[in-house]
Design brief:
This protein is of the alpha/beta class. It is built from 18 helices and 16 strands. The chain has a 5-stranded parallel β-sheet, sandwiched between helices. The protein has a 5-stranded parallel β-sheet with strand order 7-10-13-6-14. A two-stranded antiparallel sheet has the order 8-9. Strand 3, helix 3 and strand 4 form a beta-alpha-beta unit.
Length: 461
């Protein structure tokens, strides 16, 4: 073992080493793996770019002189794919202009060959720690933004007043599990975020996962993580949501759709705060608040054998019911104003409000899609409106009680092309993130595995 810096005290990471000299690749890989890192050793820039298209990385150690595309060209491609991924350049032929250009392109360090492995290890440790701190700061900034944009429980109805009171009591308590019930689109996630951001856990992460959106085979990996080699595609260790949210809150949205196999592991975690990664043997501890939400009848699922009774009892210690929007129609004007302000800020628009006759029609509507439907209606109106006020003509026909033109027998029914819309959203997210799948998944609000599944479905891989 080296007498130099022991990186086991720092954060381990997924590191990519790119060098055409086999001995250098091997020696760096050997040293860094001894310190707990996952290391991919690659001989060319082309291999590096291809590897990054399929995997996440925390750091790249990149030789400048490579066969094919050189290190500087690789650095440019990496920046286009992921502007935040740190890169340390390695070279035996460094010049001042090259160093200046490397720093301009975003390289975080520049090491001259032959270098001491202890110094390399120190540079790696410092770079990973700095990247971790940047992520934490960025996460806190996003969390504060979300506090204003997403955690506002808007309304003046008695139902909302009671909801706010319950949220405040739960937030101040030490309750480790909370169950939120309500119809789809009623605002269950907003309530969960409000509990988190009003609690002593507010400075810690809030992690949400939709149990319906994750393929069954990946649920346990998403929640509890996995070890390298645990299954075919497990090429690196991965931390799950409960590990990443340590000290914070995990929202298990639509808990009623969680597979029975994962329910047993979840129960153990909630009971004794321990879990194992998939393929792991070591017990890990996670001190988190687990908030579960559902629109389904859990009691019926228990009776049908599709939900564990013991897990239901563990989750149902404290239960919150979120009223549907049709039961609190007096909240419609305030919610609409809230969404108008939100879209004005996001889109740079200047919509001033809603015409009285349009507001009257909205107040008479039953809102089967709840608050989510109201938000979508306001967003739709922003697209159609040309003046400062949302008028009756900007509301959808269903809300006004009008039906679409009858379909002629034998003619194809008009329909929203959901597959095409989904593909377009994925393409736009990938374009905005310059092809970075992790950031595109965050933008779309899905896991990276779900994104890759849908990319394959639409022939985007």
């Amino acid at each position: 073992m080296s007498a130099g810096v022991d990186n086991r005290t720092g954060p381990p990471g997924q590191i990519v080493v790119v060098d055409d000299e086999k001995l250098i690749r091997w020696s760096i890989k050997e040293r860094l793996e001894q310190r707990g890192h996952e290391v991919a050793a690659l001989p060319s820039g082309e291999d590096c770019v291809a590897w990054l298209a399929e995997h996440d990385a925390d750091l790249i150690l990149l030789d400048v002189r490579l066969p094919g595309i050189d290190g500087m060209a690789v650095l440019r491609k990496v920046r286009a794919m992921n502007r935040d991924l740190p890169v340390i350049l390695l070279t035996a032929h460094g010049t001042v202009p090259m160093a200046v250009e490397a720093m301009r392109l975003g390289a975080v360090d520049f090491l001259l060959k032959p270098f001491d492995l202890d110094l390399l290890e120190l540079a790696v440790s410092r770079t990973l720690e700095a990247a971790r701190l940047r992520r934490e700061v960025s996460g806190l900034m996003v969390e504060r933004t979300n506090d204003r944009r997403f955690a506002a429980i808007v309304g003046k109805s008695p139902e909302v007043a009671r909801l706010r009171e319950v949220v405040e009591k739960i937030a101040r308590s030490d309750a480790s599990t909370v169950l939120i019930r309500g119809e789809s689109g009623s605002g269950k996630e907003v309530v969960a975020r409000a509990i988190h951001l009003r609690s002593r856990r507010a400075e810690k992460p809030f992690m949400a996962v939709n149990c319906t959106a994750i393929p069954e085979a990946l649920v346990e990996s998403e929640l509890f993580g996995h070890e390298r080699g645990a299954f075919t595609d497990a090429k690196a260790q991965k931390k799950g949501l409960f590990e990443l949210a340590a000290g914070g809150t995990v929202l298990l949205d639509e808990i009623g759709d969680m597979p029975l196999s994962a329910q047993a592991k979840l129960l153990r975690l909630l009971e004794d705060k321990t879990f194992k990664r998939v393929g792991g043997t070591m017990d890990l501890r996670a001190e988190v608040r687990a908030i579960a939400s559902t629109h389904r009848d859990l009691e019926r699922l228990v009776a049908d054998g599709r939900f564990r009774q013991d897990l239901y009892f563990r989750l149902n210690v404290i239960s919150i019911d979120v009223a549907p929007l049709r039961d609190r129609l007096d909240d419609v004007p305030l919610l609409a104003a809230h969404f108008i302000a939100q879209f004005n800020a996001e889109l740079g628009s200047r919509i001033e409000g809603i015409a009285p006759e349009a507001l009257t029609a909205m107040h008479r509507y039953s809102w089967p899609g709840n608050v989510r439907e109201l938000k979508n209606l306001v967003e739709r109106a922003f697209i159609l409106v040309s003046g400062p006020v949302i008028e009756l003509e900007h509301l959808p026909p269903d809300l006004l009680g009008r039906r679409a033109t009858p379909i002629t027998e034998g003619a194809p029914a008009p329909a929203l092309d959901l597959p095409s819309a989904e593909k377009r959203f994925i393409e736009e997210a990938l374009a905005k993130t310059h092809g970075n799948q992790t950031r595109a998944a965050e933008l779309l609000g899905v896991t990276r595995d779900t994104l890759r599944y849908r990319m394959k479905k639409h022939d985007l891989l």
